Amino acid sequence: MAGAMRPEPGTLDEGALKELIAGELGAVRERSHGLTTEVLDEAGLTAQVSPLMSPLVWDLAHVGNYEELWLLRAAAGAEAMRPEIDGLYDAFEHPRAERPTLPLLPPREARAYISAVRARVLDALPAVRFEGGGPLTAGGFVYGMVVQHEHMHDETMLATHQLRKGAPALLDPPARVAPTGPGPAPEARCSWRRGRSRWASPTTRGRTTTSGPPTPSTCPPTTSTSNP
Q1: What is the rounded CA–CA span in Å between residue 101 and residue 97?
Q2: DSSP 103
Q3: Which three-class secondary structure string do you get for 159-219?
Q4: CA angle 26, 28, 215 (to 5 degrees)
Q5: Could you read off the pLDDT tens digit of each residue along the chain, which spans 228 residues?
Q6: Are 144 and 71 spatial neighbours (Cβ–Cβ below 8 Å)?
Q7: 53 Cβ partners below 8 Å, 6+ apart?
Q8: What SS3 class is residue 80?
Q9: Rg of the chain over CA atoms, in angstroms?
Q10: Is 78 exposed, middle or buried (0-12, 13-18, 19+ CB in 10 A)?
């Protein structure tokens, strides 16, 4: 539920922590799809709106490739699914300005790939040892890292939407009447309905459109994050 408080990962037993991880992975992926394949066509996803930004389809496949590298190959010890694309989605190998020239996965294939990665991650999760399995998986560390990484790219995707020309693809939700009685705390009311996470780095709160500055908000200001 939007704004609901979730337990801190460090307070849970391994079974409950794995349930939390599965939920957080699902929430951030819903957010990613809501910024890409659910709101833009192929032309919009493959366009580069600025040399400072990647095509959105690059970000989409990149988060799945990063997840494959860390949660399947490193944490679960699985064989590589698509080793031939690792270089395409290495943020340090290819600067943003040149990414549109790469033979990137088209949107439909990118979504299928990251969905297949996610299915294998969830299948492997029950067998991954958090205690005694080494520092990478201790306390679910690497899973939190991957969730946070995808949230960071979602913030980059939001910035890309801000730079797009033409009609906005993301629209504000209908205005809600302020409650007259006791209600959730301001922090809970201001949390964006997509992707609230105990592991997420600070995200923009309030309403965000895709053309012009964000609409006014009474939510407290937050810091933003950046990534390659």
Answers
A1: 9
A2: -
A3: HHHHHCCCCCCCCCCCCCCCCCCCCCCHHHHHCCCCCCCCCCCCCCCCCCCCCCCCCCCCC
A4: 140
A5: 333 335 565 678 999 999 999 999 999 999 999 999 999 999 999 999 999 999 999 999 999 999 999 999 999 999 999 999 999 999 999 999 999 999 999 999 999 999 999 999 999 999 999 988 899 999 999 999 999 999 999 999 999 999 999 889 998 777 777 666 655 444 433 332 333 455 544 433 333 334 444 334 344 444 444 456
A6: no
A7: 96, 156, 159, 160, 163
A8: coil
A9: 18
A10: middle
Q: What pTM value is reported for the model?
A: 0.76
Q: What is the largest CA-CA distance in the chain?
A: 57
Local structure of residue 96 (DSSP, 8 states): G
DSSP state of 69: I
CA dist 155 and 137 (Å) reads 26
Contact present, 167 and 209 (Cβ < 8 Å): no
Domains in the chain with CATH codes = 10-173 (1.20.120)
